[in-house]
Amino acid sequence: MSNTGFDPAEVARRIDEDDEDLFVLDVRNEDDYEEWRIEGSTNLPIYDELLEHDFSTLEAHLDDLPGDREIAVVCVAGVTSARAAAFLRDRGFDAESIDDGMNGWGRVHRSFEIDGVDGVVQIIRPGTGCVSYLVHDGTAAVVVDPSQYVDYYLSEADERDLEIVGVADTHAHADHVSGARRLAGELGAPYYLHGDDAGGLARLTGLEDGGTPPVGGRAPAGGP
């Protein structure tokens, strides 16, 4: 079995760039696929069979798979998909598993400089659609609505020689686990949150309507 695989971040980049040489095959059960999937992927629900090293259904569908494209196989954690990818390689396909499966996909973040807006980096999680921001002025930066994967924001700031001087949640999030309090705590930086969403939280800096956390010589008007 190959020790190599597709980096989930690379898969996200290629999908975003409409790379037609990439074909994503999801081998999870249909219910799991319908609940959450990689955009543009194809589902062949053989997860339970692969657990038992049963490749009969996969073999029966070989003619449905492209022989002239790279096949990125995904499952839950990258184990059963690696079995499927090895089986496909043995039959002449250019196939590899996506590292860590959908678990790895859920951790992917992509950063974009916003055209026409200086000092704002938009950070998107393709697996969830959640959006956060790194707002900076000079060497100072504020992170807005960070995910739980705080190391990504530390890395982005470090690459730009920025010091994170504040962390903010624009609201209490229901769609993802916020990493704002953790990030602020690790850095000893202020954590900003609107007073109406604060509840009984301690160690935060409240924001009133229209209030914004300062960063360098600017204050992001109204938040991103």
Give a nutshell description of this structure.
With 224 residues, this protein is α/β, with parallel strands linked by helices. Helix content is 29%, strand content 22%.
Helix coverage percent = 25-40%
The CATH class designation of the largest domain is: Alpha Beta
Q: Which superfamily, in CATH terms, is the homologous superfamily of the largest domain?
A: Ribonuclease Z/Hydroxyacylglutathione hydrolase-like
First and last CA, distance: 46 Å
Characterize the overall form: elongated
Strands of the widest sheet, in order across it, are 5-6-7-8-9-10-11
**How many DSSP H or I helices?**
9
Structural class: alpha/beta
The portion of residues forming beta strands comes to 15-25%
What is the total number of structural domains? 2
Number of strands: 11
Low-pLDDT ranges: 198-202
Overall average residue pLDDT:
89
What string gives the helices and strands in order?
Answer: HEHEHHEHEHEEEEHEHEHE
Provide the CATH topology of the largest domain.
Metallo-beta-lactamase, Chain A
The major β-sheet equals: 7 strands, mixed
Radius of gyration: 21 Å
CATH architecture annotation of the largest domain? 4-Layer Sandwich
